Amino acid sequence: MNNRYVDSHVHFWNPGVIDYPWLSGAPAISRPTFPADLDETRQGLSHELAGIVFVEADCAPEQALAEAEWVTSLTSQEPRIRGIVAHAPLQKGEAVRDELSALQA
Asked: In whole angstroms, what is the distance from residue 84 CA to residue 57 CA?
């Protein structure tokens, strides 16, 4: 298959591990979503998903680092995850440095 693409805006969530307050108002999707779900929804398409960029899924702010760590753990089984756009509360100004350092680790 020659037609390959990178999906640059993908969300996964696992409400059993990370709290996503907004999911309580969305019962139709209030279940874990993983990279394998992308393959399920893409059946029959002629383009190959070659890469994924995860974008934070609006978890509880105090769990933002845990969300990034959880998605990082998925990369051992899902090599198509090429990047993570994690939550970083930039409105904190200089106080966000520790969180940014933790995300770099």
From this structure: 11
Look up residue 74 and give its two tokens: 């998925």
CA separation for the pair 57, 40 (Å, rounded): 20
**The tokens 């709290």 sit on which residue?**
19
- Specify the pTM: 0.88
Domain that holds residue 65: 4-104
Q: Structure tokens of 65? A: 């680092």
pLDDT tens over the chain, length 105 residues = 578 999 999 999 999 999 999 999 999 999 999 998 988 878 778 888 999 999 999 999 999 999 999 999 999 999 999 999 999 999 999 999 999 999 987
Distance CA 16, CA 77 (A): 19
**Pair of tokens at residue 57:** 């899924």
Q: How many domains does the chain have?
A: 1
Which residues make beta-bridge pairs with 55?
A: 85
